[in-house]
């Protein structure tokens, strides 16, 4: 017995039914979003299913069953976002995670199939029908990548990162080498060191439920940071729909009054009151184009927090930094969600900018010790340490991520930053 017809029917029903349901219950915007997601993922998944079933022999029904489950889970997940809220563990693990994994695999499969199309056409023209059929074995690779990325998505790397403040640097924006220690603390620096925990892009949702984010924050706070700096994007659609959940997840920060500061990211403007309320409830000071001054073991630190703006970043930053000029004898930090704005900071105006937003590039080779990501040739500094004159920028790979696609080869980050301030 084959489930292939059932998979085809489920795909058509999902492609039509989910956007129609979304349009009726939530509106055109989300309906179009759901339609685009499904239109990108389903064709590649269905074509790959046919190729894999053709070479699977007696295991073909299993291939059909897996694809059928993936389609149903993807449709159920997107349908639940019409009235989004954080769900129980069984729903996250049985619906949301496999559904999003299937969508990621289907999207990758579409790209993969297009890349292999010239090879298949050449084999057809050569009359090598058996080779064409067995080439279908390779169509498992996109789904294998999606499955492997679950571990990358779930478990951020625990690292200590040493970031030196400098008086000089490259004349143009460049990536700089950075010292990292995984799972162990480095030997103490001979120079004064400011210990910072940066939390960026936690995106409370199915991949980052309340208990997991709360545990990760507790683990980071155990390193006794001097400052805890949160650089935006706290919620997903599910998180927005669950009032009070973010405050519960951030609760460990209550034990560090006067040391925790935050800014808005782009997604926080979708629910600013919920984010601001959660930060206030946990003793975190929200800096919306504002500054704070705090005494630390390395002396006084000035923290300037930039609100997220989509346009006019250059003018926005220049006006903000002019409104809050450098304080004498203070280490000057800038919290800036989107790192693209760093290039607009005048040389010498800020010692260290802390950003997130990019999720480290999300797709790349960082897991293998190679800095390359899909953002390498774009305007986004993707992850790690950058310099522009004496200015330094650290781009956090993110505590979480937002839905699609999964992290592929770019793990999240649970790091402790040791900012080294040279004497004299």
Highlighted features:
globular, Purple Acid Phosphatase, chain A, domain 2, 424 residues, alpha/beta, seven-stranded mixed β-sheet, 11 helices, single chain
Description:
Helix content is 40%, strand content 17%. Helix 3 crosses helix 4. The model has no long low-confidence stretch (mean pLDDT 93). The protein has two domains: 4-151, no CATH class; 155-420, Purple Acid Phosphatase, chain A, domain 2. It has helices at residues 4-25, 28-56, 60-80, 89-125, 129-134, 141-154, 210-221, 237-240, 245-249, 272-281, 313-323, and strands at residues 157-164, 174-176, 179-182, 193-199, 227-230, 260-262, 285-286, 290-296, 299-305, 331-335, 352-355, 384-388, 391-395, 413-420. The protein has 424 residues and is an alpha/beta fold. It contains eleven helices and 14 strands.
Number of helices: 11
Assigned CATH architecture of the largest domain? 4-Layer Sandwich
Q: Segments where pLDDT lies below 50 for 5+ residues?
A: none
Strand order of the largest sheet: 3-1-14-4-5-6-7
The CATH class of the largest domain: Alpha Beta
At the fold tier of CATH, the topology name of the largest domain is: Purple Acid Phosphatase, chain A, domain 2
Tell me briefly what this model is:
It is built from 11 helices and 14 strands. The chain is an alpha/beta fold.
SSE topology sketch:
Blueprint: H1 4-25, H2 28-56, H3 60-80, H4 89-125, H5 129-134, H6 141-154, E1 157-164, E2 174-176, E3 179-182, E4 193-199, H7 210-221, E5 227-230, H8 237-240, H9 245-249, E6 260-262, H10 272-281, E7 285-286, E8 290-296, E9 299-305, H11 313-323, E10 331-335, E11 352-355, E12 384-388, E13 391-395, E14 413-420
């Amino acid at each position: 017995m084959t489930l292939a017809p059932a998979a085809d029917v489920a795909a058509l029903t999902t492609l039509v039914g989910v956007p129609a349901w979304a349009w009726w219950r939530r509106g055109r915007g989300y309906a179009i979003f759901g339609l685009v997601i499904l239109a990108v993922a389903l064709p590649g998944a269905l074509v790959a299913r046919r190729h894999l079933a053709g070479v699977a022999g007696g295991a073909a029904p299993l291939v059909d069953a897996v694809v059928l489950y993936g389609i149903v889970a993807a449709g159920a997940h997107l349908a639940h976002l019409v009235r989004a809220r954080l769900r129980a563990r069984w729903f996250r693990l049985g619906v949301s995670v496999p559904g999003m994994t299937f969508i990621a695999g289907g999207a990758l499969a579409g790209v993969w199939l297009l890349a292999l199309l010239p090879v298949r056409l050449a084999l057809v023209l050569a009359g090598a029908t058996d080779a064409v059929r067995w080439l279908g074995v390779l169509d498992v690779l996109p789904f294998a990548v999606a499955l492997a990325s679950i571990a990358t998505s779930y478990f951020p790397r625990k690292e200590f990162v040493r970031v030196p403040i400098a008086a000089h640097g490259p004349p143009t924006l460049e990536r700089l080498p950075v010292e990292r220690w995984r799972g162990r603390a480095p030997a103490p620096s001979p120079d004064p060191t400011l210990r910072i925990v940066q939390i960026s892009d936690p995106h409370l949702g199915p991949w980052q439920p309340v208990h997991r984010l709360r545990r990760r924050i507790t683990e980071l706070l155990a390193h006794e940071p001097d400052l805890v700096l949160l650089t935006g994007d706290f919620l997903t659609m599910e998180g927005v729909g669950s009032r009070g959940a973010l405050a519960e997840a951030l609760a460990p920060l209550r034990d560090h009054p006067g040391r925790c500061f935050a800014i808005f990211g782009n997604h926080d403007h979708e629910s600013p009151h919920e984010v601001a309320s959660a930060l206030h409830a946990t003793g975190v000071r929200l800096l919306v184009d504002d500054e704070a001054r705090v005494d630390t073991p390395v002396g006084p630190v000035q923290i300037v927090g930039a609100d997220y703006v989509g346009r006019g970043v250059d003018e926005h930053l220049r006006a903000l930094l002019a409104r809050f000029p450098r304080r004498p004898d203070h280490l000057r930090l800038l919290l800036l969600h989107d790192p693209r704005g760093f290039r607009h900071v005048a040389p010498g105006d800020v010692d260290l900018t802390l950003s997130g937003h990019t999720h480290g590039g999300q797709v790349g080779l960082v897991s293998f010790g190679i800095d390359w990501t899909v953002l390498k040739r774009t305007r986004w500094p993707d992850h790690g340490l950058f310099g522009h004159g004496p200015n330094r920028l650290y781009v956090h790979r993110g505590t979480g991520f937002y839905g699609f696609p999964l992290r592929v080869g770019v793990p999240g980050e649970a790091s402790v930053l040791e900012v080294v301030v040279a004497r004299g």
